[in-house]
Amino acid sequence: MKIAVVAPARPIDPLVGARVSAFAAIAYPQVDLYVHPQCFESDGHFAGSDQVRAAAFLEVANDPSIDAVWFARGGYGSNRILELVMPRLGDAARNKTYLGYSDMGFLLAALYARGFGRPVHGPMAVDIGRQGGDRTVARSLGWMVGRDRQGLEPSLGGRPAAAFNLTILGNLIGTPWLPDLTDHVLMIEEVSEPLYRIDRTLFQMAHATQLQGLAGVRLGAVTDVQSNDPPWGETPETMIRRWCGEMGVPFLGAAEIGHTGGNTVVPFGVA
Amino acid sequence: MKIAVVAPARPIDPLVGARVSAFAAIAYPQVDLYVHPQCFESDGHFAGSDQVRAAAFLEVANDPSIDAVWFARGGYGSNRILELVMPRLGDAARNKTYLGYSDMGFLLAALYARGFGRPVHGPMAVDIGRQGGDRTVARSLGWMVGRDRQGLEPSLGGRPAAAFNLTILGNLIGTPWLPDLTDHVLMIEEVSEPLYRIDRTLFQMAHATQLQGLAGVRLGAVTDVQSNDPPWGETPETMIRRWCGEMGVPFLGAAEIGHTGGNTVVPFGVA
Questions:
Q1: pLDDT, tens only, B90-139
Q2: How much is the pTM?
Q3: Which of A165, B33, B106, B270 could form a disulfide bond with B78, CB atoms 3.0-4.6 angstroms apart?
Q4: What residue intervals traverse the membrane (chains A, B) (predicted)?
Q5: Answer CATH for B2-149 from 3.40.50.10740, 3.30.930.10, 3.80.10.10, 3.40.50.150
Q6: Sequence-separated (6 or more) residues with CB below 8 Å from residue A112
Q7: What is the CATH number of domain B161-267?
Q8: Residue A232 Cα, gap to closest chain B Cα (Å)
């Protein structure tokens, strides 16, 4: 089985590529892990120009010998290649797993909306750098290699689900790249935002016409919260309960997803 | 003629209320300017609780003796009162001007979407504190008092227009509060964001299904730009040209709107 790593947003350090390759070779010897050299390109903010990142993604997505596309890292930029890649995906792109989170939510959403492959929200190659990072990336590798359910988000089972960074979800709302999530449990997580912005994006989620048919909402980790001046008087849980109420969709509790070492795996649809 | 000032988001200092009242008394003696005491309330982040802010807005919007509602200040929070106020607006709310910008875009959008009054993007009471602030607020007062066209955005004329802070526009996309802007010139401005976020929100604008029928886009001031690490390699004009191209909508050039003393007046629809 072959897994390809590409970077549709920001680059990774070659050391990250070496570490993740070494870990995969020991823990999953049956896997041929191909870290595309595009992952190490640098074009200012991005891992190569929009054209370079699009070409690398299309190369691995359209290669029938590759079983899974594992995203190297988030950051910002995968939305900039949607118009370049989505019309050029072929049949081979329909039969594989695409796994990542954060900014990669743009691609996961677009792939799910168009019925390409099996998008999955979960740890990326760069997460090997976290404390206990071997265990973190093992959840993703275990799922891609053998559908190992040990790394799945604990609440999954039966009902279709999808998971997004809240800000990325907000940027998808109102566009044709947001998939139909009717009857899905939507899990959201957030990182590096002040609470007033989180509240504002929850307003958008709650009022989004496209999301009226959700089965429920779960809240993942809200980490690295930026300061609010003056201090914000509500917790993330108070906020999400308020907005789910205004949305008329049940708040179902916590989800173990987020920009943390404990980030679990959420296959889109039914796991 | 009577103008009421309310604060649906953050409070203003009583000194701001006094200054703007004194200026209006001298420059527009025919005006009865009523600064609602709610403008000075403080409930953590907000100028009073959601209920207090909603009640003050409804009081002045539904008062037939008031000709115009002038927003005191932006910040964050007017989205939180939409569900409280929009179903409770009466006939008197249909016959007046509502004027503000920034976070007030939530209310201006909702009012325009529902056909209430004449929403206008322009300087608020708090802008009297800017250098040359008398001239800044005089554009808004001149328009409210006597339809003085000297303070209007220079490109206006004939074609319907609307203006928004880009981030607030982004948060409105995909919700029923975004008005139908078909055949409108959309003007956007931004403040206190890093360029990668501006790029990301422009992506959402460009791909928004609701905005496909725009006549064109104009770019206002992009001020207090936050640092980007690594440095962003594009100017705001390069970015907006790129996204307008992907949107298939003409970029029409600059607009004199923004978080600046030069902010002009943009009545929604045909001025």
A1: 999 999 999 999 999 999 999 999 999 999 999 999 999 999 999 999 99
A2: 0.97
A3: B106
A4: none
A5: 3.40.50.10740
A6: A119, A162, A179, A268, A269
A7: 3.50.30.60
A8: 6
